[in-house]
Amino acid sequence: MSTDPTRYTADDIEVLEGLDAVRRRPSMYIGGVDTRGLHHLLWEIVDNSVDEHLAGHCHEIIVTLHKDGASCSVQDDGRGIPVDMHTKTKKSALETILTTLHSGGKFSSQAYARSGGLHGVGSSVVNALSIEMEATVHRDGFEWSQRYKRGKPTTPVKQVRPFRGRGTTIFFRPDEEIFSKTTFNPETIKQHLEDISYIHAGLKIVFHDDARKEKIEYLHADGIAAYLEKVLAEGQKKATHEQMFAISRDDGKIKIEAVLRWTEATDEQVRSYVNGIRTHAGGTHESGFRSAISKAVKNHLDVHDIKFKGIAIENGDIREGVLGILSVFLSEPMFQGQTKEKLNNPEMTAAVESLIRPAMETWLSSNTSIADAIIGRIVLAARARQASREAASEVRRKTATTRRTSLPGKLLDCRSTNPADSELFIVEGQSAGGSAGMGRDSRYQAVLPLRGKVLNTESLTISKVLENQELKDLVETLGTGIGTNFDVRRLRYDRIILMMDADSDGYHISTLLLTFFFRHMRELITGKKLFLAQPPLYKIQVGTQTTYAQDDVQKEEMLAALPANRKVEIQRFKGLGEMNAQQLKETTLDPKSRTLLAVDIDSVIETEKTFMQLLGKDPSERYRIIMSEANLVDDLDV
User: Fold this and answer.
1) Taking CA 585 as the corner, what is the angle to CA 579 and CA 589, rounded to the nearest 5 degrees?
2) For the purposes of burial, counting CB atoms within 10 Å of the CB of 581, is it exposed (0-12), middle (13-18) or buried (19 or more)?
């Protein structure tokens, strides 16, 4: 390889053999090496069993989380992975599939007419990122098995014993060298498996949690109609009308199923799936779904000559409060990326819209009382939008000429007028604001101190929110507007960082602010603009050397690594105000040494449920959580 950095020759080209590329760049294949990426490994194996169900050969899937919490098995009663010799690789088909990228039976429609796995990388990626994997196959009258380590076989394909029956079982243990945490969350697994059972009506899924000695069976004959009722009940949303809209069609090439109801919620929620895989980022099928709803309602208003004086109905008004589930099955889905979070098939927009729009128009015309209730709901949304637009009209984007006159006086703004180069720290209290103001880099770092605990905005209207001075100051500082007037392009800072004390009060304030952002500025979260600072809880002084610990666990690890005879001074910070400007800069402000935790939404519906439980009007939910989780609390910070 050339040592001259200005030269670029053939010797600089690396060729990664086998699954080395997966281990070198795992995020390209599973989206990341965090908890979400860890669970994606399990979803890949489960999806393979679901594909057997879609092909008509699997009726039951058994998922087991073993006692260690860091290994899983997935068993199905499908045809079993072939074990005979592959003519091209001269290896068993089983070994070829599990150790070779872009190998599998889903590239053509001969073995699988519809499937979620089209890249041929799912099982092999899981194998590459696992410290151990074992495949057990039942087919052709025998049991076969093979073991692997980090994507490479450690045993040949063995014929173990005669066996009557068929199916595949995959056991795997994720590699601690790849993942920061290898412990699976049983609640996340249960939620995902239950979702699958609703999308695939008639498929039985069994979950075993060996640590808790728990067994749960999921089987839903009513499919997504039952799913909608479950989501509606769990989200504690009041429906605008009783009868749901439901449509289903399968022409042999494309199968489309959709259900929806309008609710009194202020947002729109659509859960979409392609071949049973959740498309978190939506795609062309969701675009067709949303377009169909808007056009169907507008056509109904035009046909029946329904007009409202002084109100212009917009698409957002029509879809406000909609709770919908859309599931499509097609033979050649085009996903954006291996994680399959967005569908790109251009034909699906028209396919979904052409099915749903006329059916919904007929449904509205045939159910006048339901149509009247929905239209009344839409009119209320339009009026609320107009009212909030007036309330938020004072918000302006930062410019070099207006920034000083239109912003809150307590804001310590940065000198930069370029939003892409600046960041805002939101802190609690003037004390922390003073330390942060002195420790920051004023060229690009701004500080906004808030007084005490902000308003709980769960279930509040925008007008009520803007009556609170602290939140009004926050809205003016960000510059985006709020509610229907929200425009992320007017955001004055590229990063918004919540910097609260590392104690129970700080966590409470962070939760209240997260509620505000989730309810009224959600695009800041989905756009990866919102972060949580991670200030240390302890300062550890050993002679002239100073280190910081984030929590008790890290403190104990640091102390354990020190010689027994060393004199150690430990200071516990009760709040950010106890840190001087230099300490705050070193630990929390300086990008070179700080740690930021990005705020993300894995499931909108689950997040909705969590905020309602923690901050909603019903105290019984909080009491239930406290009573059920109290035994898990080792120490209270009081």
Assistant:
1) 115
2) middle
Q: How far apart are CA 473 and CA 521, in angstroms?
A: 15
**What is the reported pLDDT for 239?**
92
How many residues would you count in the chain?
638
The count of structural domains within the chain is 4
At residue 245, the 3 state secondary structure works out as: strand
Q: What is the rounded (10 degree) CA torsion for 557, 558, 559, 560?
A: 50
**Structure token digits, residue 516:** 């505000």
Q: Are residues 403 and 350 in the same domain?
A: no
Q: H or E stretch including 215?
A: strand 214-218
**pTM of the predicted model as reported, rounded to 2 decimal places:** 0.62
Catalytically active residues, by annotation: 428, 501, 503, 505
The answer to whether 79 and 137 are in contact (CB under 8 A) is no
Find tokens 């014993």 and name the residue: 161
Mode of pairing for the β-strands spanning 204-209 and 60-65: parallel
- Three-state DSSP string of 168-200: EEEEEEECCCCCCCCCCCHHHHHHHHHHHHHHC
Same-domain check for residues 442 and 323: no
Q: Tell me the pLDDT tens digit for each residue of 55-94.
A: 889 999 999 999 999 999 999 999 999 998 888 878 898 9
Any residues with CB less than 8 A from the CB of 521 and at least 6 apart, and which?
478, 480, 482, 486
Domain identity same for 421 and 496: yes
Question: Do 243 and 370 contact (CB within 8 A), yes or no?
Answer: yes
- CB atoms closer than 10 angstroms to residue 619: 8
